[in-house]
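Check my protein:
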Amino acid sequence: MKILILDDHSLFAQGLGKILEDNIVGAEIITCHNITDIYHKCTDLQQLDLFISDIELPDGNIFDLLSQIRQELPKLPILVISMHNKLSTIKKCQQINIQGYILKDDDHLIMYAVNELLIGRFFYSEKVRNTLKILDKKELVLTPKEEEIIKLLAKGFNNQEIANKIFVSHNTVKTHRKNIYRKLDLGSTVDIIKYYFENYICDK
């Protein structure tokens, strides 16, 4: 059993490796702390039985790497273990067919998730699934007005300019923006712009 752990936090990676070694007889654990490290160690991904990765790494876009792995090795189980429980991040993982996603404080689920993936199943922890469920909650669905504001923000308009365009007050726009941040778990205008392009909200 050959497992690669990609995580820039060395203590977490070492601890995770020890858990795997203690629970999987004969497991060979390869630990990499950045994307470049994978290639420096001449790791042959085709020989892996499981790929475990964090989402936030210092030297590149992890989703580019995961997409490449998924394209080249469609059957390789990939488990994401991350501190991020954001809807946009989880959706990206779903879009590229990542089989597993748990949070770093879901430590009691590590071996269960690993075992599920090794027998060909998908496993997203309850906390992660609950985040995905916000798509189904009526109160968190964007209104047409909110989608219009997202579109205008992505085009570079400020609050007052948006207010003038949609014939509402400046304070109303501010309230809409607060609701958008809350519903989408975003923190800035940059996040809204990213959401716009990632989710293909287009002019109608």
